[in-house]
Specification:
With 402 residues, this protein is of the alpha/beta class. The protein folds into 3 domains: 110 residues, 2-Layer Sandwich (Nucleotidyltransferase, domain 5); 127 residues; 111 residues, no CATH class. It contains 15 helices and 9 strands. Strand 4, helix 2 and strand 5 form a beta-alpha-beta unit. Helix 6 crosses helix 8 and helix 10 crosses helix 11. It is elongated, with a radius of gyration of 28 Å. The protein starts with a strand and ends in a 22-residue tail after the last helix. The C terminus is likely disordered.
Length: 402
Amino acid sequence: MYYIGIDVAKHHHDAIALDEAGQVVIPPFRFANTRQGVKELLDRVHRLDGPVQIALESTGHYWLALYEHLLKHGYSVAVLNPLQIKAYRQVGIRKTKTDPVDSFWIADFLRIGRAQPMVVSPPNVRQMRELARFRFTLLNRRADIQRRALTILDRVFPEYHTLFSRPFSPTSRRLLRQAVTAHEFASWPLQDLTEAIRQASRGRLGRSLARRIQSTAQHSLGICSLEMAAGMEMTLLLDQWELLTQQMDALDECLATLLAQEEQYLDTIPGISTTLAATILGEIGDIHRFPSLKQLVAYAGLDPTIHQSGQFQATQARLSKRGSPYLRRAVWMAATMARQYNPDLAAFYQRKRRQGKHHNVAMAAVCHRLLARIYVVLKEQRPYEVRGPNKPHIPRPNEQTA
């Protein structure tokens, strides 16, 4: 058996080959991160007169293309956590720090049989993970836009938040395209403003809100000198916000298509929408790589860390926030929905609050319980059974109402 260690980088990789005795049979060499470069690697490997195992570090995202290319050629490839190799190198005799030596430690770690390869999810699950993470990116951008828009309103119509608790509801967005400053709203003919509100709210709102808007605008502290700039900025921000929302909707459809190809029951758990189910499954991958719930909780970064020094031990523990921030955020969002629509978790949350726990502490406890349900559903491959009343409609996290 021969062992190939590959140290992965962006533009090139370094490789070495050892035999079963740990002797170098192919000296360290560098090859480009291109199809021709991989061909040079394979040409050298083909000269070996025995079976081959290959190991490489999961360095950023650079390893994936090489990994898939080697799999297509029929090789057994182990993907190792860089922390494993770092620890192994530190206990080794050699202390040199050069890239070729790094490839040696990777090959030698594989040779001695201590490697615990990472479980690489199948392509469908990896696609869900990529798209769900990109969706979070768009969600963050949209949140930035909302904050910028609220900053504008704080200047030109600071009382606006008393009229719309959600300034980016359809009705509010429609009005903000026509008026932004308090002066503009105060000057808007009452009948025209009423009609605009009725159209935007599909008849649910009308003259009463129009009068409140005009009365508030007439007594506003907002400045008038930025009227043109505020209107232009707000229009462009609303365009961006609506474009991002459309793109997120497109991602939701794609995630739903990918999720339908998987045998899973995550979306049977109240609070977990199709999008969140795809996000959670994409981050967890194969549930069997977590032998216990405790390990899954740690991977989500929802396990507590206790600060201790000498005889001192903190009375309050904080979340470790290690592992996957995307999984942690998805579970938190699902827990927020679940405590509203899952009778069992809602009662559990209220019990924690009555015990004097802070909202975040109570929510962390809900997340832990929700993760336990996720763990069981994925492990046993069966739908979640709702306790209490029939499962109600669970709105999507990004649903907007007027």
